[in-house]
Amino acid sequence: MSRDARWKSLLELLVERGRLEVEEAAAELGVSAATIRRDFDQLAEQQMLVRSRGGAVVHGVSYELPLRYKTARSASEKQRIARAVAGLVAPGEAVGLNGGTTTTEVARALAVRGDPTVGSPALTIVTNALNIANELAVRPQFKIVLTGGVARPQSYELVGPLADGVLSQITIDMAVLGVVALDVVHGAAANDEAEAAINRLLCECAGRVVVAADSSKLGRRAFARICGIEAVDTLVTDTAADEETVGRFEEAGLRVITV
Hints:
Blueprint: H1 3-17, E1 19-21, H2 22-29, H3 33-45, E2 50-52, E3 55-57, H4 61-69, H5 75-86, E4 94-97, H6 101-111, E5 123-127, H7 130-136, E6 142-146, E7 150-152, E8 157-159, H8 161-167, E9 172-177, E10 181-183, E11 187-190, H9 193-204, E12 206-212, E13 224-227, E14 234-237, H10 243-251, E15 255-258
Parallel strand pairs: 4-5, 4-9, 5-6, 9-12, 12-14, 14-15
Antiparallel strand pairs: 1-3, 2-3, 7-8, 10-11, 11-13
């Protein structure tokens, strides 16, 4: 069983039971107690559970959002992409993150970078994603700016004119976009027009735009356009991306990083 499958099973068991002992979990999943202890420690670092003596307990309300949001699709690819994106962020920068599974992984990668925990904010995170703000709010080294707006239960993103008001008043160094589709001709796109509108504003107030997208999103079109390809500076994707497709993005002027 892969680590991602194990984590998903552990979190499902925790939701069902509220508490899980190491030996109990090891027997359920058919792995060693040492593996479960390591899994519990790593999940606790991501604020997805609380470690207890001999096991783990549910994190409460703050646990529910990341769990419901998490998906196992392309999980390892998204984590590699996230680490690469986090490496593009300089200390002290203001970074915008929209909602999505890949940007959630970017937030987690930023959270474990080891930035200073005292003095000026190591990073300022601007986001319209409730789950990202929820996970990062416990990090004292980050300044968290939440856009406001009306929450969409499908994605935990805040949308609408309240969010517009905040984004029109700020500038950020880098916007990191998770997208449903990225195409050389049609640009970056989302399924929902309200989300696309907020993402567009995030791009407009950013000094540079990074799209974090696994290879399944490339060369596709979606309903609501976020921005043209000329607005994107860097694409970070996985090594399964087709060479011809990558070449077209590079010809369009993008820096493409494959991981």
